[in-house]
Amino acid sequence: MTGATAAGEPLVEVTRGGVVESVHRGHAVAVEGDGRIVARLGSTEAVAFVRSAAKPHQALPLVASGAADRFGLSPAELAVACGSHNGEPVHTAAVLSVLSKIGLDASALKCGAQEPYGKEAAAALRERGERPSALHNNCSGKHAALLALARHLGAPTASYDRPDSPVQRAVFRSVSLFSGVPVEQLTYGVDGCGLPTFALSVRTMALMLARFVAPP
User: Which of 75, 99, 130, 200 has the fewest CB atoms found within 10 Å of its own CB?
Assistant: First the structure.
């Protein structure tokens, strides 16, 4: 692994008064589902944590296992599980609905409280004198989905965030399937929401996403 410190290509120039004040470098690659590289900038093997870009793959076991059908999850509820959200009422309502369908409440979420990313939602909370909760965390949809998977698998909900839990083992297999990296070789750390997140090359991240929409 070359790491994120590998020299990147200039992607953004910030100017002030016509003078370049800072240059932001990075790495980018576009691949087909068969792994063929069609465009690149910088190093395709630079490594970084995939973080929220892996949410569709983390939510996939919910659907593949039959849990989504079992609990009657709606397209909106699946959508909030597959991406980061702004903590707006429409988002928190979807998360609460998932939790209600599996017999849990917001206290089961381990993502932690976070002020909504949505400015209007955050302002509304302050005006009402309310404190942000775990429901407003941009990852609460993913956490609710994993709790649903735990219920479906008959696994303890209190440990759904642990790398050795049945829930995370299913996530590891999903990431392995789409990335091509064997489960035992996946390198991971702890994301801001408390769940495992994977360190992968830029090319591997792109391959995961390409295979998600255009499997070989």
Answer: 75
| Of residues 118, 98, 117, the one with CA closest to residue 108 | 98
* CA 202, chain centre distance (Å): 16
pLDDT tens track for 84-128: 999 999 999 999 999 999 999 999 999 999 999 999 999 999 999
Length of the chain counted residue by residue? 216
- Give the other-Cβ count within 10 Å of 82's Cβ: 17
Residues contacting residue 170 through CB under 8 Å, at least 6 positions apart: 61, 65, 149, 153
* Nearest Cα to Cα of residue 73 among 157, 7, 145, 133: 145
Local structure of 30: helix, strand or coil: strand
